[in-house]
What we know:
By secondary structure, the protein is of the alpha/beta class. The protein folds into 2 domains: about 5-110, 3-Layer(aba) Sandwich (Rossmann fold), CATH 3.40.50.2300; about 175-400, 2-Layer Sandwich (Heat Shock Protein 90). The protein contains 11 helices and 12 strands. It has helices at about 10-20, 35-45, 60-70, 90-100, 110-205, 210-245, 255-265, 265-270, 290-305, 340-345, 365-375; strands at about 5-10, 30, 50-55, 80-85, 100-105, 250-255, 275-280, 285-290, 315-320, 325-330, 380-385, 390-400. Strands 6, 7, 8, 9, 10, 11 and 12 form a 7-stranded mixed sheet that branches. The chain has a 5-stranded parallel sheet with strand order 2-1-3-4-5, sandwiched between helices. Helix 3 links the parallel strand 3 and strand 4.
Amino acid sequence: MPVKILLVDDNENNLLSMEVALxxxxxxxxxxxxxxxxxRILLHEADFSLILLDVKMPIxxxxxxxxxxxxxxxxxxxxxxxxxxxxxxxxAIFKGYQAGAVDFIRKPFNAEILRSKVAVFAELxxxxxxxxxxxxxxxxxxDDLLQLNHELEQRVLERTLALESMNQELQAxxxxxxxxxxxxxxxxxxxxxxxxxxxxxxxxxxxxxRPNQIKQLSQIIxxxxxxxxxQLNEVIEWAKKQSRKTSFNPEKVRLAxxxxxxxxxxxxxxxxxxxxLQNHIPKDIEVxxxxxxxxxxxxxxxxxxxKYTPEGGSVRLNAxxxxxxxxxxxxxxxxxxTAEMKAHLFTNTDPKSLSGTNNEQGSGLGxxxxxxxxxxxxxxxxxxxxxxxxxxxxxTIPAIEMSK
Length: 404
C-alpha cells in the first residue's frame, strides 16, 4: 500500500531537501509551494498519510492552512507535522496544536530525526488502513450473517405456515370423515329400519298375509331399496368431493321437491307409528342449497320428530320467504323438551341428555351436523318447544327468485 506525503513549503530548496531525506523509504511525494496550492492538491488527491507543513509562508501561513484543511471532515484524519525555523516557544507550540499539529520539526532539520518521525506516522497509517479494511470485512461478514439469519427466519416461518396449513387440512379431513360417518349413520339408518320392518313381516308369517298386503310390503321394500341405493351413491360422491375440498356445492333447488324427496324414505317409518307426515312447502319457493346437505337436514329433523311423536300424532313441514332467506319449519305434536334440552340441542352433548320421556335416545351428533350444514349455507337454526305440547324447529337458507 503506497504512503503518500504532502510537502508544503514556499522554498523549493526546502521541499527538495525533505524529499531527498525521505526518498529511500519509497514514499510518494506531492509538492506545494503555498497553502493555497496545498488545499488545491488535497481537493483532487486522497489518502494522504502525512502532511509536512512549513509554518512561515506568505499570504497564508501554516497555521491558517492547517485550520482550513481540518474544516473538511474527510481531511481531519491526516496528521500534520509543522516545520518551523522559530524557537519552540510555548505560545507558538500551543497555537500549532490548536491548529491541529501532531508534532514540530525545527529548521534546519536533522534528516535522521525527520525520517524517524515520518516512519512512525507512515507505519501508523498502514496499520490504521489495515484495521479499516479488517473492519470492512467484519462488517461484510456481519451483513452476510444477518442476511442468512433473515433467510433462515423466513424459511422457518414458511415451514411453520406450511405445517399449520397441513394441520388445518388434516383437521378438515378428520371433520369430513366425522361428517361422512354421521351422514351414513343418520341418513341410511332409517331406510334400513323400514326395510327390516317390511321384510320382517314378510318372513314371519307370509301365509297369514293377504295378496294386497304382500304386494304393498314388496313395493315398500323395492322402492326403499332403490332410494337407499341412490342415497348411498350420493353420499359416496359427496365424500369424494370433500377430499377435493369441494364438499359444499350449492345449486338451485325447488324447495317443495327437495323436501318431498327427503321425506320419501321416511314415510314407512311414519306409517309404522301411524304418524301423519305432511309436506306443506309452497311450490313457489326456490333456494340455493347443497342438495345432499338439505336432504340430510330435513331427514335428521323429521326423523327426530317422528321418534319423539307418540303413535297417531303428526309431523308437518312448512316454509315462507323472509327477505332473502327461506324459513323452513318442522313442527311435531310430540313430547316436547325442557329448557335444558333446548339449550344443548345443537351441541356436542351426550345424546342421553337429549332423551325424551318415552326413553328414546336423541341423535346429538346428527343435530350438531344439522347446525353445521345450516351455518354453511349462511342460515340460522332455532327451536321452540313446550314439554308435552310438541316442538317446532326453524332453519333458514338463501332463497332465490322463482324461475319462470
